[in-house]
TrEMBL record:
One of its GO terms (biological process) is copper ion export. One of its GO terms (cellular component) is membrane. It comes from Magnetospirillum gryphiswaldense (strain DSM 6361 / JCM 21280 / NBRC 15271 / MSR-1). Belongs to the membrane fusion protein (MFP) (TC 8.A.1) family. One of its GO terms (molecular function) is transmembrane transporter activity. This is Uncharacterized protein.
Length: 535
């Protein structure tokens, strides 16, 4: 074996010992990359604002400049504005684009300059000065990656020393030098990282941080603001209630005496939902009598029929005598005969005959509580009739002070998705109900209320019992949860928003009184999630 072969074997053995171990990890799926976080373009412009308008200038390709115009208080895009611009020796007019609030200036700055804008929009005129506007800055070039051959050059001295020693047959020194090469540690694969070499997304903003959202993105997602201010809000109280029928258009039909329901084909029983008219026959009843009562009624009927027969013969005899009988006696006999006939009809039609129960009002049958052959007593409700277009709202109030200060009112129910129904107060009961221990207030829906309120439907009645002064308040939807903290988004510049922590003092209706904002702060009331998600 030559010295060079022996040297090569030693080098191969020692270099193999330097190869790091590749340790796999368990269970991670690298087939699908992690979803990228939503980002907002970092391209911002040069801006200025007054009490009326805010304007942002941004250089665009094609030798033009884009002007974004918005309202200072609401951040709403302003269309149809007359804009006169001047920058140095150049003068021009802002031309509208298809996008609301965006105008084009046929001019591109060659150096940093000041731009003067004269704006007339929505009946307001204002003058804006935007300073320091210049051409767009080119993007920074990425740093070159280090060359792998640098490491190869670094190994030349390390490999050269063993080669020289080998030629001098100093094997021990060769082995010692190769052994001094530092071994690499094991290569551990791990989870949770993107090995594609791309840029990592920026972390989510935290409370107290200022995020930047270009005006173009604000217009795209419809970001709107509202100044925080002192407010007078209606103090409202929610109490339980239910829909009840209007007494004038509601009927509960009961029998006047114990009777049996008769299934008469000529007068069938109504069904719920059937519309009926006043005087229409609903139920046919047959009185229920004991044997003794029925015998007494039949005896009375026989006596009346006997009297009728006698009076009929007497009337015939008097009429046959002609002028012998006085006119007065003849009329008395006729009146007596007519009375007996009506008495017979009364006995036969009520005590021994059938009774026809008719509808007392116009409406729709709400419930039917009887069946043919059923025996009913005077306390039994057989049929209920309602007019669905005439209903009332009954609210139960457990605070006498609130009952004495009722102003406007409205009703809502989760069963209907058409919002609140305006109510008009009819009256408040002077007593406390012994069942629910509450004071009952009766309301009627205001004209034009949407259909859908049904008898017995539970509702929430919102009572306005006065006004409340709120120091600094914003709409309730402006307060959002951000990592377990209540925050609002305050516009601190034309394209910057602060995620400001706040404390909710109280909520009155749709308005929240806050601690942490000052009057005049422009708070985002629409597009909060889009602004908060900016990077």
């Amino acid at each position: 074996m030559s010295r060079f072969s022996l040297f090569g074997g030693m080098v191969a053995a020692l270099m193999a010992a330097q190869i790091p171990l590749a340790l796999a990890h368990g269970g991670e799926d690298h087939s699908t990359p992690p979803p990228p976080l939503a980002q907002v373009s970092p391209q911002t412009g040069t801006a200025a604002e007054t009490e009326m308008f805010q304007a942002v200038l941004q250089a665009a390709p094609g030798g033009v400049t884009l002007l974004y115009l918005a309202d200072t208080d609401t951040n709403a895009a302003i269309s149809g504005a007359d804009i006169q611009a001047q920058a140095g020796d150049w003068q021009g007019q802002g031309k509208p684009t298809p996008q609301a609030g965006v105008y084009r200036l046929d001019w591109h700055p060659l150096a940093v300059t000041d731009v003067t804008l004269t704006i007339s929009a929505q009946g307001r005129d204002d003058l804006l000065l935007i300073g320091g506007f210049g051409p767009a800055q080119p993007a920074a070039a990425a740093a070159p990656a280090p060359l792998s051959w640098v490491w190869a050059l670094a190994l030349i001295p390390v490999l050269g020393v063993p080669a020289a020693l080998l030629l001098r047959r100093r094997w021990v020194a060769v082995v010692a030098v190769l052994a001094l090469l530092p071994p690499d540690g094991p290569a551990l694969a791990h989870s949770g990282h993107d090995h594609g070499g791309g840029d990592q997304p920026a972390p989510a903003p935290v409370a107290g941080q200022v995020v930047t959202v270009p005006k173009a993105a604000q217009f795209l997602v419809g970001v709107l603001t509202e100044p925080a201010a002192h407010r007078m809000a209606a103090d409202a109280v929610r109490v339980p209630g239910r829909v009840i029928p209007d007494p004038v258009a509601y009927a509960r039909i009961q029998p006047s005496q114990p009777a049996r329901v008769v299934g008469d084909p000529a007068f069938p029983l109504p069904v719920p939902g059937q519309r009926v008219k006043r005087g229409e026959v609903l139920v046919v009843l047959e009185p229920t009598l004991s044997s003794l009562e029925r015998s007494g009624q039949r005896g009375a009927l026989y006596r009346v029929e006997s009297d009728i027969a006698l009076q009929e013969r007497e009337l015939a005899r008097q009429e046959s005598l002609g002028g012998v009988v006085t006119v007065k006696a003849l009329e008395t006999t006729r009146i007596r005969l007519d009375q007996l006939r009506r008495e017979r009809a009364q006995i036969a039609g009520t005590a021994l005959g059938r009774e026809l129960i008719t509808a007392p009002v116009d409406g729709i049958v709400a419930d039917l509580h009887v069946t043919p052959g059923e025996v009913v007593d005077p306390t039994k409700v057989m049929v209920e009739i309602v007019d669905p277009d005439r209903v009332r709202i009954e609210a139960v109030i457990h605070d006498p002070k609130i009952a004495a200060r009722i102003g406007a009112a409205s009703a809502t129910t989760p069963l209907l998705a058409d919002g609140a129904h305006g109510l008009t107060l009819l009256g408040v009961s002077p007593r406390i109900d012994p069942v629910d221990q509450g004071i009952h207030a009766i309301f009627t829906p205001q004209p034009g209320h949407p259909p859908g309120l049904r008898i017995g439907m539970p509702v929430d009645v919102h009572l306005e019992v006065g006004t409340t002064h709120l120091a600094v308040a914003v709409p309730r939807q402006a307060v959002i949860d951000h990592g377990g903290t209540s925050v609002v988004l305050v516009r601190v510049a034309q394209e910057s928003f602060e995620i400001r922590p706040v404390r909710i003092l109280r909520v009155v209706g749709g308005v929240a009184e806050l601690e942490g904002v000052k009057p005049g702060d422009k708070v985002v009331v629409q597009g909060m999630d889009q602004v908060r998600g900016a990077r």
